[in-house]
Amino acid sequence: MKLGSKPDSFQTDGDSIRYVATELATDIIVNVGDVKFYCHKFPLLSKSARLQKLVATSNDEIGDETHIQDIPGGPAAFEICAKFCYGMTVTLNAYNVVAARCAAEYLEMYETVEKGNLIYKIDVFLNSSIFRSWKDSITVLQTTKSLLAWSEELKVISRSLDSIASKASIDTSLVEWSYTYNRKKLPSENGNSPQWNGVRKQQTVPKDWWVEDLCELHIDLYKRVITTIKAKGRVSGDVIGEAVHAYALRRLPGFSKGMIPNNDIIKYRSLVETIVWLLPTEKGTVSCSFLLRLLRAAILLDCGEMERNELTRRISKQLPEATVTDLLIRSPAGEATIYDVDIVHNLVEEFMTHVSQPIPLKRNSMRALEVPSLDQMLLKCWLQS
User: Fold this and answer.
1) Which interval of the chain is the signal sequence (predicted)?
2) Residue 354's closest CA among 319, 379, 307, 324?
3) Nearest to 36 by CA among 5, 71, 57, 12
4) Where are the alpha helices (DSSP H) in 60-113?
5) Cβ contacts of residue 269 below 8 Å, gap of 6+?
6) CB atoms within 10 A of CB 342
7) pLDDT tens-digit profile of 94-129?
8) Structural domains in the chain, sorted by start
9) CB within 8 A of 322, min separation 6: which ones?
10) 41 contacts 28 by C-beta, under 8 angstroms
11) Whole-angstrom Cα distance, residue 118 to residue 351?
């Protein structure tokens, strides 16, 4: 959205000076961080109650110079506000609107100061454009990360969350916006099917259309989005499970191969613990293989006992789905066995608490294991049940 119509007359002198190039001499210096803004009092004070108060209480010894070091968004956000005061053309978009909104709040650019002030203009833009757009809502939520306290207070985060969750929960027949969905096309979509009659049918929107776009979010924001989607109660556990699975694959390097990076243990431990917390409660909404990979990661990253117990409980309910490869969890360094027999033993014991009678092993799951000690442990548990 463009505001103002006058040409941009802000000029730069080095890295630390910004000034308005006009015939009229500037009469106020506003220090924002390391940048000095040489401006005119009238346009700034006519729209900012905070600057009015700062100038009124300024020390005469330093003249008309004021400092606002703690303005959210820093010099870039202040410049947007200053240009608006001058009526200069300024463009708001999903990447700068949060900083501009927070800075305008800091400068107290309210309607009581002047009608049609910046806060009002930005709120109209957010409601009429940003929060109606799927990808802009995600972008705005991402930009709140550096301005969390302000964004929370101004309800930018809550409005972003509601916008994203509402769109993710909508009937797929109503999805009309673009989204990221990397999947193999059907033969009929490529025109390569022998039965293809030359007419391309409009493909239906998949239920998990929103999953990949949300993988761009930091884990803290992702957790809040998924929690909000769950609270609306219109998305099935299967789709939530697919979303969490996709996020784990994107955010945990090597996860699909059973490997976990060791360069930032605290970061990845927190991520795994949060993913466990986000798993849908319904049985079967995520695969046993995925749960076992999470358990392997939780062990390697020394996650909390609560998370490991929760994974053990969930895996035990789906244990017949497990394959030999899934169950081969390496023992910690220094152990006598290559693979952790105790973990599998605990899983089988927990599984037996959920069944009233033994269930025969499937041919393609938990079949004869390559590690004798592990094989013996499993058989012993089954025979003693």
Assistant:
1) none
2) 319
3) 12
4) 74-86, 97-106
5) 301, 302, 303
6) 12
7) 999 999 999 999 999 999 999 999 999 999 999 999
8) 1-159 (3.30.710.10), 207-303 (no CATH), 318-385 (no CATH)
9) 288, 289, 292, 315, 365, 366
10) yes
11) 61
Residues near 332 by beta carbon (within 8 Å), at least 6 away in sequence:
340
pLDDT classification of 191: cutoffs 50, 70, 90: very low
Instruction: Identify the band that residue 18 occupies on the pLDDT scale cut at 50, 70 and 90.
Output: very high
Instruction: Give me the long-range contacts of 55-63 (CB less than 8 A, separation at least 24).
Output: 55/28, 63/29
Model confidence band, residue 197 (pLDDT cutoffs 50, 70, 90): low
Query: DSSP 3-state assignment of 194?
Result: coil
Which residue is it, tokens 């673009």? Answer: 178
What pTM was computed for the model? 0.84
pLDDT in tens, 50-79: 999 999 887 655 558 899 989 999 999 999
Q: Burial, 298: exposed, middle or buried (Cβ in 10 Å; 0-12, 13-18, 19+)?
A: buried
Buried b (16+ CB within 10 A) or exposed e, 269-291: bebbbbbbebbbeeeebbebbbb
Q: Is the pLDDT of residue 289 over 50?
A: yes
- Residues 213 and 179 sit within 8 Å (Cβ to Cβ): yes
Assigned token pair, 121:
């203009």
Instruction: Tell me the average pLDDT across 11-21.
Output: 91
Which candidate, 273, 241, 268, places its Cα nearest to that of 252? 268
DSSP string, 342-381: HHHHHHHHHHHTT-SS--PPPTTSS-S-SSHHHHHHHHHH
> 18 forms bridges with which residues in the sheet?
12, 37
